[in-house]
Amino acid sequence: MNHGQQSGEAKHEDDAALTEFLASLMDYTPTIPDDLVEHYLAKSGFQCPDVRLIRLVAVATQKFVADVASDALQHCKARPAPVVKDKKQHKDKRLILTMEDLSKALREYGVNVKHPEYFADSPSTGMDPATRDE
Amino acid sequence: MSTERAQDGDRNEAASSSGCSESYEFSHAAAKAAVAQVCESVGYEHFKDPALESLAGFALQYILQLGKTATSFANLTGRSQCNVFDIILALDDLTDNGDEGISSESCSLGRSVKLREIIDYVNSSEEIPFSQPLPRFPVAISDRSRNLIPSFVEIGETPPGKHIPLWLPAFPDPHTYKETPMWIERVSDPRGDKIEQARQRRKAERALLSLQRKLVCKLSSRNPVWGDMDGVKEEMREDESEMRSVSPSISEEKVESLNRDGLSVIEAFAPAMEAARDGFSSEAHTEWKKKKPVALSKLRTEKKFLGQPLDLSLQMKGEDRPLSFVREEDRDDKRRRAEFILRQCMENPVDLNQL
């Protein structure tokens, strides 16, 4: 009984926290606009008049994209810097979102995105791109 | 910022190409812009287009998958509309929780790892609203098209056919697909036109006839008064104007009729002339002589009148006339003329029909 009461209380707290969170969502404007999210949710059959839920989905998507992008950024930064030819010691690497970084990042999410090579002129074509030069 | 320029370029390209039907292109372009903004907040400065496009596609697939899973969870419990727990369950379903799995208590905040992560993310990250104002793109066009074409009920028409309900948009007006005449077509009546023409011809000839009769009448009835010529001149001018009002195509026939009647006029003039000469023999010769050339010239002008009816007024104007006579004679002349015409119409119906 105690356990049940405790879980009941926890549930109440959880519910309170949930409602609080949903209320706070109204202040936070997600980067992905509501109309766009609503359009795609309607495409998949999701029907809900509540704006908070749409914002929840938008925020979830935004978080997903941010996670993937940050992982790709890690891969980009982890790559060895190009050879500095002039006298500058430290050169800021240009942070460009490329397909390679993206495919590496998405692999952890279970998505297989492999960009095929233009030319297959050497035996190492199609192998792990980390071993090859850019 | 080069990312923004790249974004704008992509957006402009997509927007211009989405000017035609596909709403997919427009939404895809908007999603690309949003995703680029998110990446920018993460730390990226530049994007490669294929990478950005594929990432935007993934984000859209994520939304679609979330929606599909949440809907299926709602349908599982017999609801058609989703609630927050459906979304939480769907979120957990999408994430790869290999060791945990979905438990019955994962709906709550405490258990759902994903939700906690999201809450943390909301609290920690700064707010980046979407940069461009986005219109309600899928709905607006259909609203406009619906408003442009009113329904049968709104117009107040009954649809042509019982199978068409009233709330459907009305059919277009017949002038949009049929060739309807732009002007009121007048029915051409050739027979009626000919009758009208003949009637006008007869009217003109009647006027001429009356003119000649007047001349005859004047000369025969009022022999001593040669000054009457002014009144006759006036009458002739009026008759001419009458003649001119009739169409010129029948002038030939006029001339013919004149020829026919002109002979009778000259014949009528001859005894009148003799009577005049006899009557005036007692009076001043000079006066008569003065008037005589006038009469002769009148005859001459009469002859000319046969050939060229329109030159008459000019010739008559050239002669001297006592002006005082004109006005007094006008009124009497008009009265007498009306009487004369009436008499002639009564007495000689045959002559009129001849014309």
UniProtKB/TrEMBL annotation, chain A:
Entry keywords, A to Z: Nucleus, Transcription, Transcription regulation
Annotated InterPro entries: TAF10
CDD domains hit by this protein: HFD_TAF10
Keyword NAD: no
GO molecular function term, any single one: promoter-specific chromatin binding
GO cellular component terms listed in the entry, alphabetical order: SAGA complex; transcription factor TFIID complex
Alphabetical GO biological process terms: transcription initiation at RNA polymerase II promoter
Main localization, broad class: nucleus
The protein's role, per its UniProt record: TAFs are components of the transcription factor IID (TFIID) complex that is essential for mediating regulation of RNA polymerase transcription.
Family: Belongs to the TAF10 family.
Protein name: Transcription initiation factor TFIID subunit 10
UniProtKB/TrEMBL annotation, chain B:
Family recorded in the similarity comment: Belongs to the TAF8 family.
Protein source organism: Arabidopsis thaliana x Arabidopsis arenosa
Taxonomy of the source species: Eukaryota, Viridiplantae, Streptophyta, Embryophyta, Tracheophyta
Record's subcellular location: Nucleus
PANTHER family documented for this protein: TRANSCRIPTION INITIATION FACTOR TFIID SUBUNIT 8 (PTHR46338)
Entries under Pfam families matching the protein: Bromo_TP, TAF8_C
Entry superkingdom: Eukaryota
Cellular component terms per the entry's GO annotation: transcription factor TFIID complex
Region ranges (Disordered): 235-254
Annotated keywords: Nucleus, Transcription, Transcription regulation
InterPro entries: BTP, TAF8, TFIID_su8_C
This protein's name: Transcription initiation factor TFIID subunit 8
The Bromodomain associated domain, residue ranges: 24-100
